[in-house]
Specification:
3-stranded antiparallel β-sheet, Cytochrome p450-Terp, domain 2, about 0% strand, binds coenzyme A, mainly alpha, 2 domains, about 375 residues
């Protein structure tokens, strides 16, 4: 039976289609809310470290105090990269897209430390969690400083480690905490496009690295992870809130999509952006930052007034990362460094009860017709 236009519209982009079961997170139940294995995102962001959350996702429970310390030590011990990988990253030009660097680095690690048996899958998840930040910063800093850099710090958290390597000095507590919160908010989000890509690859019984590589490639797009970079461009192109208001109204008249707004699942607001906004405000402590923050607030007001569309996590994370002195090109890769925890959890879950993911398509091409030989065409 063929689909009607109304059916087609309903299922376009698989919107509203339940494509499988998960015990990892809930997104937008009743239109609002986000939970990781039953814990509200607001509680995790207020109380937990990103490493605790990664443990919750990958190893299925919050660690005890003892396990938390051990887990952080284990991850610190997994940060070093093989020399061959560092050399290879050195060959990638500074002009490359940072997401391509991570995609390539992940794939290369899969050649150097392949998955021989499925029993190692949790070790590979932890290895990627610790090694992806090293890949990104090795490539970025080597080009920036035109020399090989020392990738070791004594910072136990990814948030502190990343900021210290990037800026060459330990971050202030507030900055480390803000970074930690953003990583928690980006860690997991049910059947979003990149996670679904990872699950599809895993469902073919492919290896762990291939599934993550597929996910990184999928997250790269502007409708998904790439939105945070585009959101900063938008905020920065206005001189003040009034100019922003006029510019956004005009863009909406032209039916331009405003990056960092809207969501496929949430209907009323994105809970992640509500958690992030106060952190952005607290870091807006210079006149220039305040100006950008006021512009952002006005864009949020206009979007709600004109279209009832709310900011998603990418809108405020763009400003947060900018205020933390992170180069714009690293915004989407940071999303990877956090989301690897959620992707890994989903790959493990898919493998735990696997069936090949292979939907049907409705054929809308030509009727059956006879083949005409080349010389007769
Ligand atoms: N700016 C302006 N209008 C938007 C919008 C945005 N960011 N997001 C949605 N809309 C409008 C659409 O134009 C459409 O209006 P219409 O019915 O009059 O045509 C309606 O809202 C539904 O949008 P649609 O694109 O069909 O929703 P979707 O569920 O397919 O897309 C997103 C969801 C996230 C891809 C979409 O909101 C978007 O492109 N946002 C910008 C990119 C972004 O921030 N991505 C990160 C997501 S976390």
């Amino acid at each position: 039976m063929s689909m009607t236009t109304a059916d087609k519209h309903k299922t376009a982009g698989l919107a509203g289609v339940v494509a499988g079961q998960t015990a990892i997170s809930t997104v937008g139940k009743e239109g609002v809310g986000l939970t990781y294995r039953g814990y509200a995102i607001e509680d995790l962001a207020r109380e937990a470290s990103f490493e605790e959350v990664a443990h919750l996702l990958i190893h299925e429970d919050l660690p005890t105090q003892h396990q938390a310390g051990e887990y952080q030590c284990r991850l610190m011990g997994l940060r070093d990269l093989p020399d061959a990988l560092r050399e290879m990253l050195g060959w990638i030009p500074a002009s490359a897209h940072a997401m391509d660097v991570l995609r390539t680095g992940c794939s290369a690690l899969g050649c150097l430390e392949p998955e021989h048996r499925q029993a190692d899958q949790e070790k590979i998840a932890d290895r990627l969690l610790a090694a992806l930040p090293s890949m990104l910063l090795d490539w970025h800093l080597t080009h920036e400083r035109e020399a090989r850099v020392n990738l070791r710090t004594t910072q136990p958290s990814l948030a502190g480690h990343f900021l210290q390597l990037l800026h060459g000095k330990p971050p202030a507590d507030r900055e480390r905490q803000a970074m930690n919160v953003s990583l928690i908010l980006y860690a997991e989000h049910e059947f979003n496009a990149s996670t679904f890509a990872a699950r599809i690859a895993a469902s073919t019984l492919s290896d762990f690295y291939s599934a993550v590589t597929a996910a990184i490639g999928t997250l790269r797009g502007r409708l998904h992870g790439g939105a945070n970079e585009a959101a900063l461009d938008l905020i920065r192109c206005f001189a003040d809130p009034d100019e922003a208001e006029a510019g956004i109204r005009e863009a909406l008249d032209w039916k331009v999509k405003i990056m960092g707004f809207g969501h496929r699942v949430y209907r009323e607001f994105d809970p992640r952006s509500r958690v992030l906004e106060p952190w952005v405000e607290s870091l807006a402590d210079t006149p220039e930052r305040r100006r950008l923050y006021e512009i952002a607030r006005r864009i949020v007001d206009v979007m709600w007034r004109e279209k009832e569309i709310f900011p998603n996590v990418d809108f405020y994370s763009a400003l947060l990362y900018h205020f933390l002195g992170i180069p714009q090109a690293l915004f989407t890769p940071l999303f990877v460094l956090a989301r690897i925890s959620g992707w890994s959890a989903h790959i493990l879950e898919q493998r735990g009860d696997n069936r090949l993911i292979r939907p049907d398509a409705e054929y809308i091409g030509p009727e059956p017709r006879p083949y005409v030989r080349l010389e007769d065409r």
